[in-house]
Write a structure and sequence with these properties.
This protein is of the alpha/beta class and 345 residues long. The chain has helices spanning 29-39, 54-57, 75-82, 86-98, 110-119, 134-141, 156-168, 192-201, 214-222, 249-266, 279-285, and strands at 16-20, 46-51, 102-107, 124-126, 147-150, 173-178, 205-209, 227-231, 288-291, 306-309.
Length: 345
């Protein structure tokens, strides 16, 4: 299944690479726009945000996932400090357009979907906590736009129920293997799930990463991930709940370069049965038989008389040494002379 929609050609690139700013802006518009500029030079395809409209999505009873904040008494207060107005979001989208990066955003309320429709998004990213929120999925289904569905907290049974809900509404979707653990340790990456999702759901499958290591997405690419997503910060020491689970800007550039190279390699399989491209190199690196000491005419050649010397083609191929053992020399040979067919009988 193709999650590409009209007007978007980057989604056809594989893997489609998404850098998530998430909450790394800490409520600062200036910091957020700095992220956009910095990421525009890394080669990614899209920047992802999270649209939190506190009154629509949360309440004062919501607990903190990570008790990190020094200025927010409640999680609800945190969302209020992290939120932007509709007009501010429009400016964020405009900035992404200006640097040729797709604006991606996860809505956490039906009102956020309304805002994103007004802003103009090509597709929706659904976080792990919303997979079972059929209300917001129904709202998005009514837009007719594709969904990138993260599977971090979902069992296969839950994914089957959600994907069936989407299929019943003719919604195009992709699945991202994800582990909701910050930062994710190697034993919990679940790289095996990439192929399992491909086998069962027959859609594009990607990998959403929280490991803060570039090798994770590189491995996911080698295992067939067609979409990559990861959090980004300027420095993992900076304030915020996701900082220690994120890549830096420099690491993002390294990751993009590595992933593009790995995909290029996967798209160009080598036929190991055909080594004709190495004919010239084989002449240089492969060797010919020679004698390692001065030997008289009539000498019976033994294994201990032989050496292999570069290049190939100046004597009998070294691979044929057994064919000359036990034969007699027809000429005197100096030490290190090549051994040719006419030299033995």
């Amino acid at each position: 299944m193709n999650t590409n929609v009209e007007g978007s050609n980057k989604m056809e690139r594989s893997p489609f690479i998404i850098a998530e700013i998430g909450q790394a802006h800490d409520g600062s518009l200036g910091l957020l726009h700095s992220f956009i500029d910095a990421l525009s030079n890394t080669g990614i395809d899209a920047i992802k945000f999270q649209m939190h409209i506190p009154e629509a999505e949360s309440s004062e009873f919501e607990p903190f996932r990570v008790n990190f904040s020094y200025e927010d008494k409640t999680r609800f207060d945190y969302w209020k400090r992290m939120s932007f107005s509709l007009e501010q979001w429009k400016e964020i989208k405009k900035h992404c357009d200006e640097v040729n990066l797709e604006f991606l955003c996860s809505p956490f309320s039906n009102l956020a979907v309304d805002w994103l429709e007004e802003i103009g998004v090509k597709q929706y990213k659904i976080g792990s906590g919303e997979v079972n929120n059929f209300l917001i999925l129904e709202k998005i289904a009514q837009t007719g736009k594709p969904i990138l569905l993260s599977s971090g907290m979902s069992s296969f049974d839950e994914l089957r129920a959600t994907t069936q809900f989407l299929k019943d509404r003719n919604v195009e979707y992709s699945l991202l293997q994800c582990t909701t653990s910050y930062p994710t340790k190697p034993e919990f990456y679940g790289l095996n799930v990439i192929q399992e999702l491909k086998n069962e759901f027959k859609v594009k499958v990607g990998f959403s990463d929280h490991s803060a290591k570039i090798e994770t997405c590189i491995a996911a690419t080698a295992l067939g991930a067609e979409i990559l997503e990861f959090h980004v910060v300027f420095d993992r020491k900076q304030f915020g709940p996701d900082s220690q689970s994120s890549l830096t800007i420099d690491e993002t550039k390294q990751l993009v370069d590595a992933v593009r190279n790995i995909k290029l390699a996967l798209d160009n399989p080598i036929d190991k049965s055909d080594n004709s491209n190495f004919s010239d190199l084989k002449k240089i690196f492969e060797k010919s038989l020679a004698v390692n000491k001065a030997l008289p005419k009539g000498h019976t050649i033994t294994f201990d008389d032989l050496e292999a010397k570069k290049p190939k083609g100046y004597g009998i191929d070294a691979s044929k040494f057994r064919e000359v053992i036990g034969k007699k020399l027809t000429f005197d040979k100096n030490q290190w002379d090549f051994l040719n067919d006419e030299d033995v009988q």
